[in-house]
Each structure stands twice: as C-alpha cells, then as structure tokens.
C-alpha cells in the first residue's frame, strides 16, 4: 500500500510537471523545485517515469493532445542547460570572479562538470547528441576565455583579486627611498634603479601564496580542457610587464647592435658596468624565481610549466645577451679588454648554474645562447690581444722622445699587460686552442712557458722591442740611442719582475733582457772611453795639448748629456758613478804627470778632479724636468 501510495504521489507530481511545464526551461525549474522539496522526488525518478504517466487521479485516462506531444529532455540536455545558466551568470559579470572566493569555487565546479559532461558526450553514441556536444564546446570556449582573463588579472594585479599584499618586485624589505636611485637620463620617466646586490641566494616571491593557489586551480582546468598552451601563453603575456620593469630597475635600457657600435666608449663602459650586476641579478635571482613560480603554478601539468617559463624568461635574457653579443662584435680597441673580460667571466661562471634551470626542451636553447655569447666574448678577447700587437706596429717612428726617456708606447703596453695578467686564468682559458699561425712566432723556446697566452705575450714583447729599436735610430748620437734603449729596457724588466708577466715570460726571457740592457750600457760608455783615451800616456808622453782636447770633449758631453734622461733613479746613480770611476782617476793621473814635467801646466788646466766629478754629477738632469 505504501509503495502504491508513493507511486500515485509521483504520478501526481509528474502530471503537474507536464501541465505547467510548457517549455523545457519551465519543466527543468519545476523538477528542481520538487527534487529540493522531497528526496523521493529525485530528478531521475520524475523524469524516468514521466513518459509512462498518462493521467493522475482521473483513472489513468490519457492527457491532452498537447501533453502527449511534449518531448522530455534527456539527462545531457538538462545538465547542459543547467551549466549554461550557471556559467553564463558568472562570466557575464564585469567584476573579477576571484574577488569573491565562493563565486570562484562555484565557477570552477561548474567548469569541472562541463568538462565531465563533454567527456561523457564524446564517449556516448553520437545519435542526436552532436548538437549538444557543439553547444558544450561553445560553452567551454567561453569559460576558457574568462579563465584566461582571470588568470592574467591574478598575475598582473593579485591585490585586485585577493586581500593579501603582493611581494615587492625586487625582493627587498627596505623603504623605497633607501632601496632605489633614479635614472635621470631616461626621457619621460624617472625609473627607479635598484642598488647593487651582492647576495644572489635570494628567491623573489612575486605573487602571494593565495594567488598562486588560485592560479594553479585555473591552470588545472585549462589544461584539462585542452587549453594548456593558451594558459602558458597567457602567463607569458601577464608576466611581461613585471619582468620588463625588473630589468629597467637594474639600470639597463634596450640598445640595438647599431647603438652599441656607435656609442662612445666612455658611455659604453658605463653601460657594461651596469650590465654585469644586472646579468647576475637576472640569471641568478629573477630567472630562478620565475622557474620556481612556474613550477608551482603548473605543478603536475607538464609540459606547460616549461613552456611558460621559457616564454617568460626569454625576453629579459635576450635583452642582456644581445647587448653582450653586440659588444663582442664591436671594436677591438685594446682599452676594451678589461670590460670584455668582466663580461666573459660573468657569462662563463653562470653556465654551470643554468644546466639545472634550463634543463627542459623548451628553455635549453637559452642556455645554448648564453654559451654562444660567452664564446663570442672569448673570441673578442683574443681579437683585442691581436689588436694590441697591431697598435704597437702602427705606432709611428717619426718623433724621438726628448732626452732618450721612456717612450709612451712602452709605458702603455707594459702597464696594459701587467693589468691584463690579473685575469691570467681567464686569458689562458680563451687563448687555448687559438690559431696563432698567422703571427709567425717562430720556434718555441724550450725554456719558455708554452701556453697560448705565454706565447702571445712573448710575441707582443718581441714586437715592442723591435719597435723601440727602430725608434732608437731617430737619435743622431749613438750614446743617446743607447740611453733610450736602456730606459725602456729597464722599465720593461721592472714591470715583468715579481708579477704574472715574469711567470708567463719565464726566467730565461728575463736573463736575455737583462743581457741586452747591459750591452746597451757598455755601448753607451764608449763615448766616455773616447774621452778617457785622450788622457792615455803613450810613447808621445804627457802633452799639454791633450788636456785642451779633453776639456773640449768634457764640456761638450756634459752640456749635451745634462739634458738626457735616465728614468730609473738607481740606474741614474750607477751610471754617474761608473762614468766617474772611469774618467776621474785617469784625469787625476794625467794632471799629476803633467804638473811634474811642465812649468806651463796651469795654462791648460781648466778643471780640478773635483770639478770633473761635479760636472758628471749633473748629467741626466732632464729626469727632473719630466
């Protein structure tokens, strides 16, 4: 009896539904009302038995012709219509869905139901379901468009969708007035420039944890719906502004290859000085932070996290790499060496760290590009060294240095090489494997270090020495030529001694150079030997006329050599002493013999031995005028 009563009750409800449900929408609404009112009136029960009910309370007679012609909706139709109504109400609103957590969760549930319904439709026999599948796909497309908008907004403006405050873009906690400087050179804007960073063991939390969780939920739905690539592309677009601003805060502006090529070196040098810390900041903090964010947002959603990371990281990375590539392809002027070495070392030291960060198939190309730029910078370093050799060769042999002093090319080359050897390890690294055949360095000295860098520096020294020997021929006095070569040779030895240059050139090279300096010293003393030879006592005896010739020689040489230059103080003292030791004793002996045999001796005596010493002591005063 109870079962019969329940059947009559359900039949009555079905009759009411058929009578009032003039449209599919009205029928669905009535079904929902009854199903919510009493658990016995489930939608499945009411819809399943509705076709069998022909009448209620009137003895089971047929209903009206209109009722009999009504075709009931299928389960798919009802579900799809319900989802359409729920989803449309949400996606048509202007405010962000994620500004209300309940609305967001309800929308995601509806999307899940829609995806499940589409899968059911795809697995069911087509029959009359194709139009339903098309409707479901259209609705899913609308959902994805809206999810893209929400996804982008949550990344760009997380504070508009959630109460949690976003992290500072630079990852610091200090007040902005202390944290930034401003680049006044950039027109139409005062760009805050981040102060230098020394600790790169930092990860930037660019988004609040709540936003990351919401974004992951959205990404899961988009991937499940087959829109994973669109989701990754939306991420790239949304992160573009943050990443561009981050690079701008590092003080870098975009420069074309032509800009770099035509920029004055002092301006470019300043830009390189900014580039090095910016390069480290981007690849050691910004890019790893982006990797972590993508891994969290797309957790379990491979390969879309890798796609998003590669797409987002590429623009700032390429901005830095294109600048470095332009510098590497630019002028080979020797003054660029040290900055280019700094850039090379920054890229080289970073490569091992990029093995892990750029390990997937989408971002590995970025690591390869860093390696390519590193190689280009290395080639530039080798080219700059080659240019140093050319610079020495091109230095004109036209004007002699006054007084035989230190030539500017010697000072420049030796200080340059000494400073360059501060980066000896890096220079040896880039020089190894280089083709030096064109330099015609000749046979390698077995007693000389044979690394590519050592050979190259030895060759530069040989080129410098030949250049100096050619310049020494500009002097009319052979003695002054020797002074010039002594000055420059001594300076070279001083710069080589107790430095990496000495290690690279080897002990044998230093011995040979010292031998040359001593030879030039001996050749210089020939002019004084000629003067002393006048005082020699031979078969002709001691003649007063010899004293007159000596006086003329002494006057002439002291007057001339007083203006000559001996740059090294100790060599200047030693040279004066050597001249005194050669001249003064011979002069004193000659005077003694002359006074012993001649009554007219005082007529020819112009100088006392002490006067000769004083005259020699005033040689090389040109040193004090430099």
TrEMBL record:
Which GO biological process entries does UniProt record here?
exocytosis; protein transport
What name appears for this protein in its UniProt entry?
Exocyst subunit Exo70 family protein
Residues in Exocyst complex subunit Exo70 C-terminal domain copies? 274-617
Pfam family for this entry, one: Exo70_C
At the top level, the lineage of the source is Eukaryota
Q: Which UniProt keywords apply?
A: Exocytosis, Protein transport, Transport
Q: Which organism is it from?
A: Rhynchospora pubera
- Annotated region (Disordered), positions in chain: 49-71, 156-181
Which InterPro entries does the record cross-reference, listed alphabetically?
Cullin_repeat-like_dom_sf, Exo70, Exo70_C
What is the phylogenetic placement of the source species in the record?
Answer: Eukaryota, Viridiplantae, Streptophyta, Embryophyta, Tracheophyta
Q: Is Transport given among the entry's keywords?
A: yes
Annotated family:
Belongs to the EXO70 family.
For bias type Gly residues, the affected ranges are 55-64
What the protein does comes down to: Component of the exocyst complex.
Statement: the UniProt record of this protein carries the keyword Protein transport? yes
GO terms for CC? Answer: exocyst
Gene Ontology molecular function terms on file: phosphatidylinositol-4,5-bisphosphate binding
């Amino acid at each position: 009896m109870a079962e019969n009563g329940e059947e009559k009750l359900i039949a009555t409800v079905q009759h009411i539904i058929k009578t009032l449900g003039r449209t599919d929408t009205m029928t669905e609404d009535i079904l929902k009302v009854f199903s919510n009112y009493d658990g016995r009136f489930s939608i499945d029960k009411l819809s399943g038995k509705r076709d069998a009910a022909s009448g209620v309370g009137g003895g089971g007679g047929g209903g009206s012709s209109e009722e009999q012609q009504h075709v009931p909706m299928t389960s798919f139709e009802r579900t799809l219509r319900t989802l359409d109504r729920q989803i449309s109400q949400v996606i048509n609103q202007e405010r962000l869905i994620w500004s209300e957590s309940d609305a967001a969760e309800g929308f995601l549930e509806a999307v899940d139901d829609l995806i499940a319904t589409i899968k059911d439709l795809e697995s069911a026999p087509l029959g009359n379901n194709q139009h339903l599948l098309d409707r479901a796909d259209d609705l899913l497309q609308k959902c994805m468009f809206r999810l893209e908008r929400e996804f982008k907004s949550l990344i760009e403006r997380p504070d508009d969708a959630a109460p949690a405050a976003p992290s500072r873009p630079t990852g610091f906690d200090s007040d902005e007035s202390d944290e930034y400087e401003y680049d006044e050179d950039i027109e139409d804007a005062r760009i805050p420039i981040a102060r230098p960073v020394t600790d790169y063991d930092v990860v930037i939390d660019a988004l609040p944890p709540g936003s990351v969780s919401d974004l992951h939920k959205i990404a899961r739905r988009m991937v499940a719906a087959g829109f994973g690539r669109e989701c990754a592309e939306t991420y790239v677009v949304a992160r573009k502004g943050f990443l561009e601003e981050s690079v701008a805060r590092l003080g870098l502006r975009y420069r074309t290859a032509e800009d770099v090529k035509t920029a004055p070196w002092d301006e470019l040098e300043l830009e390189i000085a900014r580039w090095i810390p910016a390069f480290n900041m981007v690849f050691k903090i910004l890019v790893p932070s982006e990797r972590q964010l993508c891994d969290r947002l797309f957790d379990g959603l491979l390969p879309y996290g890798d796609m998003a990371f590669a797409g987002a990281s590429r623009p700032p990375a390429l901005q830095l790499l294109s600048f470095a590539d332009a510098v590497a392809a630019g002028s080979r002027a020797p003054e660029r060496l040290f900055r280019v070495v700094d850039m090379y070392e920054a890229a080289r030291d970073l490569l091992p760290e990029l093995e892990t960060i750029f390990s997937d198939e989408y971002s590995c190309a970025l690591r390869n590009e860093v390696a390519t730029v590193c190689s280009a910078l290395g080639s530039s370093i080798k080219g700059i060294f080659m240019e140093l050799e050319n610079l020495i060769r091109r230095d004109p042999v036209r004007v002699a240095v006054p007084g035989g002093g230190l030539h500017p090319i010697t000072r420049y080359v030796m200080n340059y090489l000494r400073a360059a050897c501060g980066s000896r390890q890096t220079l040896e690294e880039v020089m190894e494997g280089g083709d030096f055949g064109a330099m015609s360095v000749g046979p390698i000295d077995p007693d000389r270090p044979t690394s590519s860098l050592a050979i190259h520096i030895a060759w530069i020294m040989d080129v410098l020495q030949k250049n100096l020997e050619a310049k020494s021929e500009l002097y009319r006095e052979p003695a002054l030529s020797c002074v010039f070569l002594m000055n420059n040779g001594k300076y070279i030895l001083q710069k080589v001694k107790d430095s990496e240059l000495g290690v690279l050139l080897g002990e044998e090279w230093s011995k040979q150079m010292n031998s040359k300096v001593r030879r030039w010293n001996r050749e210089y003393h020939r002019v004084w030997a000629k003067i002393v030879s006048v005082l020699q006592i031979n078969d002709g005896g001691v003649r007063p006329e010899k004293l007159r010739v000596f006086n003329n020689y002494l006057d002439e040489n002291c007057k001339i050599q007083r203006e000559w230059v001996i740059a090294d103080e100790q060599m200047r003292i030693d040279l004066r002493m050597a001249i005194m030791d050669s001249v003064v004793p011979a002069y004193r002996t000659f005077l003694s013999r002359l006074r012993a045999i001649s009554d007219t001796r005082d007529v020819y005596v112009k100088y006392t031995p002490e006067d000769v010493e004083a005259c020699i002591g005033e040689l090389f005063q040109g040193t004090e005028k430099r």
